[in-house]
Every structure is written in structure tokens, then in C-alpha cells.
Amino acid sequence: MFRLFLPLFVIVCVSVPNTSATTVLLLKNGGSLRGELLNPDEINRKTHRVKTAEGIEITLDAKLVERIQPRERDALIEYNRDAPLTEKTVENHVAWARWCTERQLFEQSKVHWQQVLELDPDHVDARRVLGYIQTQDGWESHRDRLEGRGLIEDRGRWKTPYEIRVSSMLGNREQAEQQWERKIRELLGRLPHTQGELLSIRDPAAVIPIRNVLADRRFSNQPHIRVLLLQVLMQINDPDWLALQLVVGWTIRPEENEEIRRLCLEEVQKRINAQPEIRGIVIAVYRSALKTKDNQVVYLAAEILGNLGNVGGREAVPELIDALETTVTDVHRTQAQGPSFGPSGSGGLQWGTSTVRNQRLVGNQAVLAALVKLTGENYGFNQEAWRAWHRQPYRSPPLNLRRS
After folding, report:
1. How many CA atoms lie within 13 A of 237 on its CB side?
2. Which residues pair with 57 in a beta bridge?
3. What's CA 48's distance to the chain center, in Å?
4. Of 7, 33, 54, 57, which is least surrounded by CB within 10 A?
5. Is the pLDDT score of 273 beyond 90?
6. CB neighbours of 61 closer than 8 A, spacing ≥ 6?
7. 308-358 per-position pLDDT tens digit
């Protein structure tokens, strides 16, 4: 039976990785244990004391060990002493390659297999060990196969040229974002003198840093800084429209100051008027917000969609219908009185508090108001009636050509 005498013989130490000569103990159960043998000079050892690379000392019953391989340092000494004197034949190189593999000298083993191929290019074992496969055109190495597919080795990994370009771009982008975040925080620390410099930022690489700074709790009580950073975001035209989406999302943050939400919404409306093509991006943010479980977010998103009027058209109607009813949780806490008994059998009354949570569906008035504004219909909070109406072909309302 395999036993580790952990309570008596294992000592955990905090140390650097062991650089002493390593011994490999091959166990009878097929496993192995590597480390520094602490009692090598002990005669007729009944136990082997081994210190692993992690600094753990293990005492192992000698009966469990099949054999002990020579220490790697001793094996390397033996190799450096004898290998150069060996005649350079295929048989000798094969023998040395296998000898090195058994003793964990893998680099030396690879060298000998390569020497085998120089002497015998069709040596099957050498080809297979070195990663070659046989094709109709002869032997092909792993590197040749990958390069034939157009892959390029990059820091130990094989990648397509596109992956390498993307990786390089992401690395450059990450470096630029780090620089921008440091720069923005520095400029904020020197306000108001640096306000003009902040408002002149147009680089898309500054979007993520601004988002990170906005999330910094140190600015939670400084609304003027948040307004300034949101103004900067609105002036950045990044290809992914992330800056715009961040500002749109800010209009439905329940924890944000109402005045700041209003300013953000005004900026969003100005952008829509100036760039009608961004309408879909704006509406998509609010449609996604209607699916959240935060009732306050749903309320704000519905209210804004209703106020945007025809900007949203019928696009947000399905989500508005789904959000017509909101789940509300009512929490009731009551004091409860009950008997209590001690170990001796004595009793008395004990007071406690119990909490009861009840969930119920309520109509969301802001959602209904938005539906009425966007459709000109009113089916109340009857979701099935709204869905039946929405399944019908849409007919545009007649245009009113009269001047007001």
C-alpha cells in the first residue's frame, strides 16, 4: 500500500524552487516522484526522504519504490563525459537519444535524433519523434505543414496573418488606452485650467478610459466632472459607436442626477437630428433596457421612447408590450412571539422577527404611455390585445398637409 507519512515527516517550507540535483523515484504502481533525495548516503534505506521543487519534504516507504534513476545532474555529467567519445553511427545516436529521454535530457535527445536523420533521412523512428508525417511526396515536418497552411509562428503559437495583425492592433490599442486614462486623470486633477484640453479630445481610444473614470467612485459626488466627461464622449465619433451608447445608457441610470440625465438626453436628441443614421443604435439601447429586471430602468427607457415620438416608430413596440406588466416584490416584517425552553425545562416567551416576501404583477404606466404615443392605440394593460394588434399589417397614419 502506498503511504505518505504526512503528519510526521512532511514539512512545508517557503522557499525558492529547488535547484539541487533532482532524483526520480519510479514507483511500483507506475507513478514517479521527483525531487532532491535527502538521505542518499544512508545504507539499507527503509525510507526515502525526498524534497520536492515546491519545498515539501516527503518520506516514502522503500518497499514502494521499483528503482531510482540517476540524479539528473549526474546523468548530465555522464552524458557530457561519454557521448562525445562515442562513434557517430545511427545505432549509437539512437541509443543516446533514448538514454537521454529516459533521464529527462530532452534537448540532448532531440540533437541525437536530428543526427540520426542526417545519417539516415528515412529513419522512421527519428522522423516520428521529431514530428514528421509521411505523405505521397515524402516526409513533411509539423512546421512545414503549418507554414503550408499560411500560418506564422508568433511567440510559440501558430497564427494566421490576420490574427497577428489583430493581436498587434489590440496591443497597440491597449497601450493607447492606458496612456489616455493616465492623461485624463491628470487633466481632471488640474481643473479648471485643463477643461479646454479635455473638451478637445477626439481619439476613439479615449472612450474606454473615460468609461473607467466615470465608474470611479471618487467622482460620484462630483457631478460637474461627470457632465464634462459625458460632453467629451458625445464629441467622439468612434467606429463602434461605443461613446454614443455610453451616453445613451447614462440617460437611464436611476442612480444618476436627474439634471445630468436630462442633459445627456438633450445631447442624444441633437445627435439624432444631425445624424439620422444613428437612430437605430439609440433605439437598440432603450429596447435592450426594457428587458432588464430593474423596474426603474424600464420606467426611464419607456418614458424616453415615448418622448422621442416617431423617432422610435414601431421598432420598440414588442419590447414595450412585454414590459407592460412589472413584477413588484412586497416585503413585510412582523414580530413573532413563541415559547422557548431551557436545558432545565424552564420556559418563557421569546420575541423574534419574520420576513415575508410576496410578488405581484402591476401595470407599468410609463410603458403604456409610450405605447399610446408611438401607436395611437390604447389597449390598456391587456398584453394579448396589444400583441394581436401588433400582428396586423402596419398602416401609416394619414399625413396632415395643412400648415399649422
Report:
1. 4
2. 51
3. 45
4. 7
5. no
6. 3, 46, 47
7. 765 555 678 899 999 998 776 766 676 655 555 555 555 555 555 667 677
Dist CA 103 CA 147 (whole Å): 33
Q: How is the chain split into domains, by residue range?
A: 6-69, 74-149, 259-334+356-395
Q: Give start and end residues of each alpha helix (H) in 206-278.
A: 207-214, 223-234, 242-250, 258-274
Dist CA 21 CA 37 (whole Å): 9
For the chain, give the number of residues: 404
Q: How far is the C-alpha of 350 from the C-alpha of 339, rounded, in Å?
A: 6
Instruction: Compute the distance between CA of residue 301 and CA of residue 312 in angstroms, rounded to an integer.
Output: 12
Q: Do domains 6-69 and 74-149 have the same CATH topology?
A: no
DSSP class per residue in 47-81:
EEEEE-TTSBEEEEEGGGEEEEEPPHHHHHHHHHH
Rounded CA-CA distance 231/213 in Å is 14
pLDDT in tens, 20-48: 457 788 898 888 888 888 887 777 888 98
Grid-cell match 420556559, residue found: 347
H helix or E strand, kind and range, residue 107? helix 106-119
pTM score of the predicted model: 0.51
Three-point CA angle 326, 329, 331, nearest 5°:
160
Tell me which H or E stretch contains 338: strand 325-341
Kind plus residue range of the DSSP H or E element containing 252: none
CB 250 within 8 A of CB 230: yes
* Cα atoms in the 13 Å half-sphere on the side-chain side of 208: 9
Residue with C-alpha cell 400583441?
A: 387
Largest Cα–Cα distance in the chain? 113
CATH, domain range 74-149: 1.25.40
Helix 242-250 crosses helix 279-289 at what angle (to 10 degrees)? 50
Q: CA 38 to CA 60: how far, in whole Å?
A: 12
Instruction: Classify domain 6-69 by CATH number.
Output: 2.30.30
Distances, alpha carbon 11 to alpha carbons 3, 33, 56, 57, in Å? 16, 16, 6, 5
